[in-house]
Amino acid sequence: MRPLRSLKEIIGQEPAIRLLTQALYSRRLHHAYLFTGQEGVGKETTAKALVYHLFCNVSLDEPCGSCPACQKLDKGLHTDLLLVEPEKREIKIGQIRALERELHFRPINAEYRVVIIRSAEKLNPEAGNALLKSLEEPPPYVLFFLLAENASRLLPTIVSRCQLVRFRPLPKAVIKDYLIKRLGLDEDFAETLAELSAGSLGRAVELAEKGLLEDLHAFVSAGTSNKASAKYRILERLVKFLPEDQKRFLDLLRLWVLRSYLSEKGASPYPKGLPEERYKGDPFSAELAIALCESALESYVFPELAFHQLMIKLF
Ligand SMILES: [Zn+2]
Asked: In terms of pLDDT, which residue wins out, 88 or 72?
């Protein structure tokens, strides 16, 4: 998919977009924004779209997509857009110092230099305090966008320096519609992914693109069959996943357990896109087995072993 280049294309976040659009057109952008909201609701997409408006050489209103600035942004190569994100688990003071040095230089190809800080709650205390200085006395050409799930995990002094913009979970219908129209998914599949994504469009798209739902089907059908080859195939696949995808897969498995349980109790209908075979055991022991697998993966137990144990316990 091409990158999203306009605030007008952001879906489901009208109050946030209205506020930013007004600030943009009246040329009254705050020097620091804090975008809060769960992962995948459009915080980073919005910050980047705003940068297209600011940097496009042709139009502030409709970024053109073809001028040198838009092209550089498309490729992630624009020197006036700086990204900071956690290295391993946190954002460290060295990263903020490097950023400060970089910000001494005026923009080269634009009016502003824009800094996007992903997962700002991961700023460690020293880094947070260092950033605070930049937020207090920023060079006039610098704009900050701090992205965080929750403002309460940031230093209050940082929060008070920023204009807070809240991003809300997206309604299921909005996500479903997007999946059908933009990704060309069929209705049932889109419905299930929208449901599983719990208001996060990013998560829904990721589930669709990575095919984790298909893996869940394969895992359940292998677990309930007595074909060793089917078991071996899916276990071998899971082992090759990146750690964050293994975690997502386990979350999906949790959801399958929960939805099986809820439908058995008559509390809510079972989603069509989940495996036909429902979980029949006790949900608490399933959760225990999943949590055990999770901690085994985190402590570098052989993933083959962790997933195999999980399969044995669940089926
Ligand atoms: Zn342009």
From this structure: 72
How many Å lie between the centroid of ligand 1 and the Cα of residue 104?
26
Joined together, the tokens standing for residue 52 give: 């297209």
CA 54–ligand 1 middle distance (angstroms): 9
Instruction: List, for residues 145-156, the tens digit of each pLDDT value.
Output: 999 999 999 999
Distance CA 78, CA 70 (A): 9
The mean pLDDT value of the chain amounts to: 93
pTM for this structure? 0.80
Show the tokens assigned to 47: 């910050």
Which residue is listed with tokens 């099986």? 260
19, two tokens: 């506020």
User: Residues 182, 247, 171, CA angle at the centre, nearest 5°?
Assistant: 40
Closest by CA to 279, choosing from 207, 221, 198, 203, is: 221
Tens of pLDDT, residues 26-46: 999 999 999 999 999 999 999
Kindly report the number of other CB atoms within 10 A of residue 298's CB atom.
12
Q: How far is the CA of 144 from the centre of ligand 1 (A)?
A: 21
